[in-house]
From TrEMBL, chain A:
CDD domains (alphabetical): ABC_DR_subfamily_A (cd03230)
Name of the protein in its database record: ABC transporter ATP-binding protein
GO cellular component, one term: plasma membrane
Membrane topology category: Peripheral membrane protein
UniProt xrefs under Pfam families: ABC_tran
Main location class: membrane
Automatic annotation (TrEMBL), chain B:
Species this protein is from: Actinomadura harenae
Record-linked InterPro entries: ABC2_TM, ABC2_TM_bact-type, ABC_2_transport, Nod_factor_ABC_transporter
Family, per entry: Belongs to the ABC-2 integral membrane protein family.
Identification of the protein by name: Transport permease protein
ABC transmembrane type-2 domain sequence ranges: 17-242
PROSITE patterns the record matches: ABC_TM2
Subcellular compartments: Cell membrane; Membrane
Top-level taxon: Bacteria
Amino acid sequence: MDAITVTNVAKSYGTVRAVASLDLTIPAGQTLALLGPNGAGKSTTISMLVGLARPDAGAVEVFGDDPATAVARGRVGAMLQDGALVEGLTVKEVVGFVRGLYPEPLPLAEILATADLTDLAGRRADKLSGGQRQRVRFALAIAGAPKLLVLDEPTAAMDVESRRTFWASMRAYAAGGRTILFATHYMEEADENADRIVVMAGGRIVADGSAAEIKSRSGTRTVRFTLGDQSAAGLDLLEGVTGIEIRGTTAILTSTDADATTAGLYRTGLTVRDLEVRGADLEEAFLNLTTDQS
Amino acid sequence: MPTYLRLEVVRMFRDRRFTFFTLAVPVAFYLLWASVFKGNGTEPKTGLDIQTYLMVSMASFGAIGASLSTTGQRFAAERASGWLRQLQTTPLRPWAVVTGRTVASMVLALPAILLVSLVAVAVEGVRVDPLHWVLMVVLMWIASLPFAALGILIGCLAGPDSAQPITLGAYFALSILGGLWMPVSQLPSALRTIAVWTPSNRFGNLGWTLVSGHAPTATTALVLVAWTAGLGALAIPAYRRTLRAR
């Protein structure tokens, strides 16, 4: 069964088109990363998935139901970007409260352990540090053992160590056969934690596949070699070259046709040492995909 | 909904500022006015002695304050912080949030009514028929409903910074027009005409009539019901709208 089906959905806020004709099917059990720059339509898509926004056109289904119904049945847990914590309650109280709203929640001790909050259970939730608060918000999202977990930029405001533990917690939760959708603009988070990456730009999906597929689809390669103190003049005129960067003594050429570029390079009469041809990394692939749209 | 109600009540009692303003202030005002006006006989319109009249006034003042302060500014702040949006991603439905908040606000209005009327009996020697006293407490408690609805409406429409002055403004306007600080007969005539249609005036009236052993008029009941229905009918869609707006 599909966890999410989005069919031809559009959503505008006033005159701003946030999402334009979006189609997306997510099978149950998949971990999907929604990758894109700010303003790509990620948060709007998430708002519609959790029933906080209604599409202007098209249909969104979550486990075959309208999103609001799926939420009411306790099938969805969410960590939104602006979901602050309520004042005046301890970690244990606020997690226990949200847990109590769901029909078949996880045991309290398990939630606290998964979110690494066992030692903070008695502390006031609104007086914790930024990273600790994010963990509480993650605990609230998983408290009801939802079949679909939606996370909107969950690691914003976390340091490197907190991020590492956070993704370990998320993977532990995903291992139970649950469906997870997370939005991020960090390429490496998508690369390391998702089965599938959907790249959005300008309210549309511009790429959809595994990290490897997205890297290859962008079609660019880099050609790098040691230039030393030779002149870089004319390198940008070689066949296939779309960009040139000199880093110290190294020249890095971005090319849409690495073979032609390399052949041309040897004809320039330059002394070419340490030649290396590589596929673009995910970050470059991402930039290639999203800059075309804007 | 009961879980949410319990959560809200616990949170309010942990807030010292709330406990101070909704309990200590009306009691202190009661004791102050009762000693200032002591021996001034009876309030002409209701025929109640001053201590009893002020007991109802200050219980009303306290209950309205408690209803508004559990809702207005807090609700606006929770809306701005994203907590209410977070709540709406759980199985708790919008109507349950509004109902839970309204009932919580009523639960928290009860201590103000009780405390002022107990202090009146214990300290100022007010004597009321126990049955009338119980009726007054219970019916005033139910009649605090329109003020909870008003607070939620303010919380849905006002920003987190403007919600507090708006709530305070509404509180003072309702108290003055309601004749809770001074009898309505002392107000300028233009205000007197408006005053009888305010929920606060009818709220006070309900209490004054009940302690004197009479049944409240149908107009009083209707005005209170109309305010509750009207404000409630505005508050629920306003709440739904705030969840969507981004």
